[in-house]
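Provenance

Sequences were taken from public entries as deposited. Structures were produced by running a predictor on each sequence independently, with no templates supplied. The record for SDR family NAD(P)-dependent oxidoreductase from Haloplanus rubicundus is shown for reference.
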Amino acid sequence: MVTGGGRGIGEAICLELADHGAEIAIADVDEEGMAATVERIEAETEATAASYAVDLADPALVDERVDAMIDDLGGVEILVNNSGIMGPTAPVEDVTVEEWDRTMHVNLRGQFLTCRAVLPTMKAAEFGRIVNIASMTGKNPLYNRAPYAASKIGVIGLTRTLADEVGDHDINVNAICPGPVDGPRLDRVFEGQAEARGVPVERVREEARAESARGELVQPEDVAQLARVLCSPDADRITGQDLNVSAGRLMF
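Predicted structure for SDR family NAD(P)-dependent oxidoreductase:
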């Protein structure tokens, strides 16, 4: 099960896991994007894929869709919590309660809800792999992005505590903390930062590149490859970790 699998990092993770033999269930609000990802999986791999429309801010709908996945697939062995929203780009005093709550509901509560929904079937099988997509911003400040940063450090706390709770059921729980991932979503972040600072967008982009040891932005495939490793037997003894994929921008 991959949430937010319709575009970007989520699409790359779906394709990477499918290419290594996983059956893919995509959960997303983006039905058009999900359909495109399913089409790519079926055209480019030998795996099967299905889509399930869900708003992760809706607890009842999350439970309903996960139950449907379990009925259709016979269980969920892997959960990748990738769905997330950018939230507002604004100083804290200008962030509305509605903006704060929506960011927390999707980015943090959504991951809690999906974990809660799949854990009974993982415990019954005595096996599971959960990968939560956090962010470098959960560890490092990002100007005018307090709701997003708070939600992502919350994901790291959820990951560590859940890993400790379920480890004796052969369930591993890890987080990936990407740096700036190239694509349309990052373009919107850069545009918001440029407007807030009164500087050109390209200056913000070049600064982001220059701040990494590699002088590069992260690509969706970089995150997908680590997600696949964390779900494989090669990572059986890796749990409770928050692993950076930042081209060297973050080193702790």
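Residues 182-217 form one domain.
The chain has eight helices and seven strands.
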